[in-house]
Amino acid sequence: MMRIRRTIVSSCVALFCGAASSQPFQPALYLPIAASVVRVEALLEGGRLSVGSGVTVAPAIVATNCHVVRDSGSIRVAGGGVMWEVDGEVGDARHDVCFLRVPGWSGHPVALAQADAPEVGATVVALGFTAGAPIKPRLGNVRALREIDGAQVIEADAQFNSGSSGGGLFDEDGTLVGLLTFRRRNSTTSFYALPVEWVRQGIPREDQWESVKPLEGAAPFWDGEGAAFLP
Description:
The chain is mostly beta strands. The chain has helices at residues 31-34, 66-69, 196-202, and strands at residues 3-7, 37-43, 49-58, 61-64, 74-79, 82-85, 88-92, 97-101, 123-127, 138-148, 151-156, 168-171, 176-184, 191-195, 229-230. The strands form 2 sheets. It has a 7-stranded antiparallel beta sheet. A 6-stranded antiparallel β-barrel has the order 9-10-11-14-13-12. A hairpin with a 2-residue loop joins strand 5 and strand 6 (82-85). It is globular.
């Protein structure tokens, strides 16, 4: 179950509103980082597409959410104005973290936070694709940390919608602290990111890659029966 480790009383709901920070928000900082965030397209049966986002976390390796790609046998990413085919995949269905191997993709890997979670109240920025629109940094604050399997899932009010799943949550220095994943139904303040710890520890070795195919395994931890969350 999800447990709140600590909460703050106030939250910042409006986009680009004032955050608890000693430095002013600088959107230009995130322009080069956005070039490392890709659009993920997973081809489903009947020609349908599942669309999400992904973050370059190592040379030619993109991290995304498994719920974006789990039912697909063919995946590609869009980056640098070009479509790139994915030829390998490793997934952790329960934690909803999937890694894609994308030969030829030369996007610069982002910096991964070494701390397990940002502090409650810290300023964070969400970067992901929404409904095909260009990436726009969305500012917020960490509202709570929720313990799952010994790691801290981040609840923040940096808003994102469908299409941003698998995108990145970054701190003020542009360091990746989590993967955008799900949000609470009918809420404008509760948006959740998977801990960077699961990304940092899960990057596959060369001998771990498997061919792209529909994934097996349980639904992600946040999508159980009666769940109050949306991807």
